[in-house]
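Q: I'm writing up a methods section and want to include an example of the input and output format. Could you take the sequence below and give the corresponding predicted structure tokens, formatted cleanly so I can copy it straight into the document?
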Amino acid sequence: MVADLNRLPAARFDPANCARLVIKIGSALLVDEAGTVRRRWLQGVIADIAARHAAGQQIVIVSSGAIALGARRLGLPKGGRASLEDAQAAAATGQIALSHCWAELLGTEGLTAAQILVTLDDLEDRRRYLNASSTLDRLLSLKVIPVINENDSVATAEIRFGDNDRLAARIAQAAGAGGVLLLSDVDGLYTANPQRDPGAEHIPEVSRIDSHIQAMADGGSGSGMGSGGMVSKLEAARIATAAGAHLAIISGHVAHPIAAFAGGARGTIFLASKPERARRAWLAGRLTVKGTLRVDAGAAKALNEGRSLLPAGITSVEGRFSRGDVLNIAGPDGAVLARGLAEYDDGDAAKIVGKRSESLADLLGYAPRAAMVHRDHMVLIR
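A: Here is the clean output for your methods example:
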């Protein structure tokens, strides 16, 4: 099963090269149109997982499907997504069935499953993130297969990932994984939506997610059952690669999709960048921020050179925030350049926008801090 790294790009995800792997499976692959688990297909996936586990690879599964399964059992319209209340009820009902299915089928391969349900807040709060990381590490050291899903029964619009692509990337970061496989209804990224444009070309490898790559994304979910699309997958790739993990989008429409990919089946691989230090990687992967600092061209250049953000280079302050909150730093064109921890609350920040350091004490009435965002508490967003 282990491929030659020089022969197949997919070998980056093999046990010999990737000690920990996160595998994400969406609702459209796991659950059929009647609202039941596609057991035969799932058995093939689990056989692939068991082979990798036997070869020494530690596996984490991020599994959708609870809402789709629960909607069928409750007879809810629109797959349980007609309202937030329906989705929460469907998730609460379907999660039991989903967990039982995973535990049963993993058990047939001699593998032990563990269930972890998380909300966005669990991974955005630093202390809870570290707790989740420790739990994952211990489970994997015990040769357990964690099966993770968003806790949709309590999550609301304000505290939701909204799709399991980004959840998988954040879990990979928390677990220190070297790779993420997103099993999808498409076999990777194309220059345009291949369902609408027959001339769309497949992109086998991406080394940097820039505006050209972003323009290729399509936000739709073809099945109508899931919540993700190519936009969410690119965001997942950005989070994973910044944390030092390769990410691949591969087709799940085959009997053994993971083995097929390892054997040469088509996919798109997003190559990992040099991983940031743990705290900076957590900052880069956050999906919620309290505000935005817009900066001029000079400040943008200074940030790219590794300097702190001084008030003189800021052109405007947006949002309500306190010292220590996470902020985006955007350039003159509005694109996010960096993310970091505020050294001032929004009220004082507004007073010193565009001001030089020697004037800050008079404006604030107290000795100012060295920077609006210090370089030690900042990460560039590439």
